[in-house]
Write a structure and sequence with these properties.
Blueprint: E1 2-6, H1 17-24, H2 26-37, E2 41-46, E3 50-57, E4 60-69, E5 72-77, H3 88-104, H4 109-113, H5 122-128, H6 139-157, H7 172-287
Antiparallel strand pairs: 1-5, 2-3, 3-4, 4-5
Bound molecules: zinc ion (ZN).
Length: 289
């Protein structure tokens, strides 16, 4: 299962357990924590922005790849779970990774007590030099940030792009503004994807309407063709009947001709008999005195 979510942390080591908890929710976090506690995680490769690992799950060993780049946390696990935004195995890996890295780091008081999900790494704090106070909240930085935030709200109200990031030295306040900017970019990207999906959906709907019309026309044509074929069949029946009639007339005519022939022969025979009779009468009349 693959997932991508916007993330305000800059590195994986900044992903504290309570942040992971707030993202995945109670049940998945509980299971992930249990897997971590039962030492089911084996980290194969770990860095500040990526980690690959294997976790012994309920039905076998699953592989995970987790990356954090440009404010986007992408997780991949070979398990079939549909836990969102990522599964218990990824939770276990992140906890293991955090635990392993925490051992290597010197945690500062400030980073441990920040209420915001944006965590400042010890490295960034060291690089702040003279800009930040020991509490990491420089009043000037906060003022600049609040001003920027106000203009962001105005721009958002006018549906315009966010103003450029304020020029702040490193530290929690700068991280906040980067996180807000990254969230906004992610939002715009989602909006774009949404518009594209909407356009594809509309195109598909239009195509369905066109296909339905074509189908209706084809059905209409088929109906007409069937009617024409019925008519043709009726016509053929009519011709066949008329042919049968003409055959019968022919036969009757032949029979009649035959009868006429018989009558003529009879008449010729009668004529010959009459000729003979007349001759006999002539002979008889001559012999009379
Ligand atoms: Zn998984």
């Amino acid at each position: 299962m693959r997932n991508r979510i916007a993330c305000s942390a800059q590195t994986l080591t900044q992903l504290q357990p309570d942040m992971i908890h707030s993202v995945v929710g109670g049940q998945v976090y509980k299971l992930g924590k249990q897997y971590f506690a039962e030492s089911r995680v084996q980290i194969l490769e770990a860095g500040a922005s990526s980690v690959t690992a294997e976790v012994s799950g309920t039905f076998g060993v699953y592989s995970q790849t987790i990356k954090l780049r440009s404010g986007v946390l992408s997780t991949k696990c070979s398990c079939p779970s549909n836990e969102k935004p990522f599964c218990r195995h990824c939770v276990a890996v992140l906890l293991q990774h955090y635990d392993g890295m925490a051992d290597d780091q010197e945690p500062t008081d400030e980073s441990d007590h920040l209420a915001t999900p944006v965590v400042v790494s010890s490295g960034q704090e060291q690089s702040n030099g003279g800009h930040s106070t020991s509490s990491d909240f420089n009043f000037r930085d906060v003022t600049v940030f609040v001003d920027w935030l106000e203009s962001c709200v105005t721009k958002l109200g006018q549906a315009e792009a966010l103003p450029a990031l304020p020029k702040l030295p490193g530290g929690a306040v700068r991280d906040w503004s980067i996180a807000i900017d990254s969230l906004h970019r992610q939002f715009l990207k989602n909006e774009e994807t949404h518009s594209e999906t909407q356009a594809s959906l509309e195109a598909a709907q239009e195509q369905i309407v066109r296909l339905t019309q074509d189908l209706e026309e084809a059905r209409h044509d088929a109906k007409n063709a069937q009617a024409a074929s019925e008519e043709l069949k009726a016509e053929i029946h009519k011709y066949q009947a008329s042919l049968a009639d003409s055959d019968r007339v022919g036969q009757e005519r032949d029979g009649l001709a035959q009868q006429l022939k018989g009558v003529r022969e009879e008449l010729e025979k009668k004529g010959a008999e009459l000729g003979g009779l007349s001759e006999a009468l002539t002979t008889l009349s001559k012999s009379l005195p």
